[in-house]
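forwarding from the other thread:

> can someone predict this with flavin-adenine dinucleotide?

sure thing
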Amino acid sequence: MKRRSLLAAGSAALTLPAWPLEFAAPHPPAAMRVSTDRIVDIAVGIRPFRAQGPRIESQKRFGKTVIHHYGHGGSGWSLSWGSAQRALALLQASGAKPGERVAVIGCGAIGLTTARTLQQAGHKVRLYAKDRPPLVHSSAATGLWTPDSRIVASEHASEPWMVSWEAMARASFKVHQGYLGLPSGPVEWHDGYVVSDEGFNAPLGGHVGEPDYPDLAGRVADLRPQGKAMAADEHPFRTPHVRRFTQLVFNIPAYQRLLLDDFARDGGELVQREFRSPREFARLPEKCVVNCTGDGARLLLGDASMTPVRGQTAHLVPQPEVDYALIYRGQNVVALPRRDGLLVAAMGEHDFGNDDLRPDRAHSEDAVRRLARLF
Ligand SMILES: Cc1cc2nc3c(=O)[nH]c(=O)nc-3n(C[C@H](O)[C@H](O)[C@H](O)COP(=O)(O)OP(=O)(O)OC[C@H]3O[C@@H](n4cnc5c(N)ncnc54)[C@H](O)[C@@H]3O)c2cc1C
């Protein structure tokens, strides 16, 4: 609100600053308290990577329509809603009647958003899942809007594929906006800083076994404010190269809880069940099944096109005064100001092709120490 309109509103109790509000300088970022004794939890999850991109495909099997919907790599939360709209379109094309009950298998980011999208289109939905939040891989996600993270290998990123990805990213972004401004804060905008010791043109070391990824970010660059290089006197970090960016952050526990609550409120049922073979789909009462099993599809379907990519995030004691993200380029560390804690994620050299779910505390402590050097 501009100064004039505040005065016009006649709010006598308001003390106005001497400068016009539109020119007020942003407050300096509060220092992150990053020390290993503040680590209160370590979560490990698997990104379901497919070099060809996510599998969103309809099949007739066991006398049913089976829609496969998995393989969203490091972009599952970001792309979820747009991807769910694709799954819905396949369901509608299969001849499913409005109001018909549909089975969704999986209760991660993809299963939950698919279930909600089907409900909003008028379907009754029964969710079947081996595990539910917080025990799903999606619960271990960092929570940045990263629709281009490990989503496809360069060799499979044809122009039609990228056009379709862009439409999915834009559709998803639009739905995420509808979750802003809610009391539990499932989705929030935050500033962030990419910092670097060597400069932004210095080459980044790859990880063992990783393919090349296409540069997709430019296709959706208009969806968020432009970044800005910052001079030494404009930031408090102990590193010479700093750029500011602005990005959507997902408070994952709040988002999952809200989706589960909305799902139940609209009559959704959640059944705990593990499928050991796709033949078990045949025994479900629903005629249409949407398979959102993420990395679970690798085992359930024996899908050799899937590669597990391990990821580990440390939760530090929440610091509500920290409202910015940090990406430490060249050090592989990301820190996020989530409501449930200050999150510190670090990629390991051998995470690609790795499905080891055991936490490695030394790895997180090392990431926290590297981050601490900035303050
Ligand atoms: C460390 C890390 C950081 C990440 N950061 C981000 C980020 O910042 N932004 C972003 O957009 N994405 C991020 N991701 C990626 C994102 O989390 C994934 O793309 C997403 O979790 C995939 O969701 P999903 O629902 O497909 O899989 P999952 O979350 O694994 O859910 C699969 C569901 O299927 C069920 N299931 C599996 N097999 C069976 C079976 N046989 N029978 C019954 N049920 C079964 C499971 O129990 C579960 O309910 C990150 C991932 C990790 C690991």
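Residues 1-25 have pLDDT under 50 and may be disordered. thats all i got for now
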